Amino acid sequence: MKIxxxxxxVGLLLKPIIKDYIEELxxxxxxxxxxxxxxxxxxxxxxxxxxxxxxxEIDLGxxxxxxxxxxxxxxxxxxxIRAVVCSDPYTAKLSKEHxxxxxxxxxxxxIGSDLAKLIVKEWLDTExxxxxxxxxxxLIEKIxxxxxx
Length: 149
Ligand code: RB5
What we know:
Shape: globular
Largest sheet: 5 strands, parallel
Number of strands: 5
Structural class: alpha/beta
Distance between the termini: 30 Å
Bound molecules: D-ribose
Strand content: 15-25%
Number of helices: 6
Low-confidence stretches: none
Strand order of the largest sheet: 2-1-3-5-4
Helix content: 40-55%
Mean pLDDT: 97
């Protein structure tokens, strides 16, 4: 399974730690940048990772900015993307079981690296439950069809 990772200049602090950890868990990682500490714009990296999921270049994505908020909002504008911002493993788990999230986002200004690793592990280990939850995802898809170009 391939995991894409994207971040802005603030997320860069945490990215190498998370990237190494995901590789240790046995996943292949595709890095969509930034790898520079020069101030940059988080929407570009949210969009890159989201498009790579839709292009089937990667299976899942991880996004990191200062809070995880801006970069996840950007990714969620792309059709088919269900990005969650998490600061705790429980939300990470439930977001996969119930919402089949395909992007996990968090903030390098909000959580430390050990908590981020727990969140990542819980999210990657959890499967979508399907069943009654699929109907709700279908309703979300209908909203996309109605409002997104
Ligand atoms: C950059 O200063 C900061 O706004 C960004 O990393 C992120 O927190 C946005 O949501």
